[in-house]
Design brief:
By secondary structure, the chain is mainly α. The protein has one domain (2-307). The protein is built from 10 helices and no strands. The protein has helices at 2-45, 54-82, 87-111, 114-129, 135-164, 170-196, 198-206, 213-255, 257-269, 273-307. The longest helix is centred in the N-terminal third of the chain and has 44 residues, at 2-45.
Length: 308
Amino acid sequence: MAGSSLFTLIDKIAVALDDVALMTKVAAKKTAGVLGDDLALNAQQVQGVNADRELPVVWAVAKGSFVNKLILVPAALLISAFIPWLITPLLMCGGLYLCFEGVEKIAHSLFTSKDDKDAEHKKDLDALLDPSVDMMAYEKDKIKGAIKTDFILSAEIIVIALGTVQDKSIIEQTSVVSLIALIMTVGVYGLVAGIVKLDDLGLHLIKQPIENAWSKIKHGFGNFLLSFAPKLMKTLAIVGTAAMFLVGGGIIAHGLPALHHILADIEASVSSEFITWFIAPTFNGVVGMLSGAVALLTFNLITKLFKK
C-alpha cells in the first residue's frame, strides 16, 4: 500500500508539473508581445556607454530587474488571493498602456525631426568624449532609467501571465508566474548582453590580419556583424511595437464584451479557415492602434491642461 501511495503521489506531481509547463507556455506566448519591446528598450538603454562597461551595465540592470520581480510577483499573487476582481482591470490597464506606448513610439518616430534625433545621439557621444563628464554618474543615470523602464514592462508581463492562470490554484499561479518572471529576466538580459556585444565582436574580427582564406572569412563575417547589429536593433523595435498592438489590443478586445462579440461574429461569417486565422490578429491590431491613439490624445490633452 505504501509503495502504491508513493507511486500515486509521484504520478500526481508529474501531472501537476506537466500542467504548470503547459500553462507556462501559454503565459509565455501571451507575454511575448512585451518581450520584443523589452529587448529593444534595454539594448537601447546601454547605448552611449563605453564598450568595456556595457556588460557591467547590463548586469546592473538585470539585478535591478530581479529586485523588481521580487516585489511584483508577491504583490500580484496577493491581489489574486484577496482581490481577484482587480486582475481584469489591471490587465485592461496593462493592455491599454502597451497600445499607448506603441502609438507614442510611432508618433515620436514620425514627428520628431532629424535634427532632434541627431541631438539626442550627439549628447551620448559628447558624454563619452568629454573628460570632464563623470562617467560613473552617467552610468548610474542610465541604469536607474533602465530599471524604471523594466519595472513597468515587468508589471505588464506578470499581470498578463497571471491573467492566463487566474482561475487556477494558488500553487499553480505561483509556479507559472515565478517561472515566467525568471525566464523573461534571464532570457531578456542574456539576449541584451549578446546584442550589445555584436558590434564589438565584428570590430574584433575585422582587426585581424588577412593572412589566409579563413581570416578572409572572419573578416567578412566581422563586416557582416557591424552592418547587422543596427539592423537587428531596428527590427526588434518594429517587431516589438507590432506585438504591443497585437497583445494590448487582444487584451482590450477580450475584456470588452461588445468588441469580443464583434470579433466572434466576423469569424463566424467567414467560411475559409485560412482567412479566419488572419482575422483575430488584424482585429486585435486595429483595436490596439485605435486604443493607443485615443490614450495618447487624452494624455496629451490632460498634460496641456495641467501646464496651463
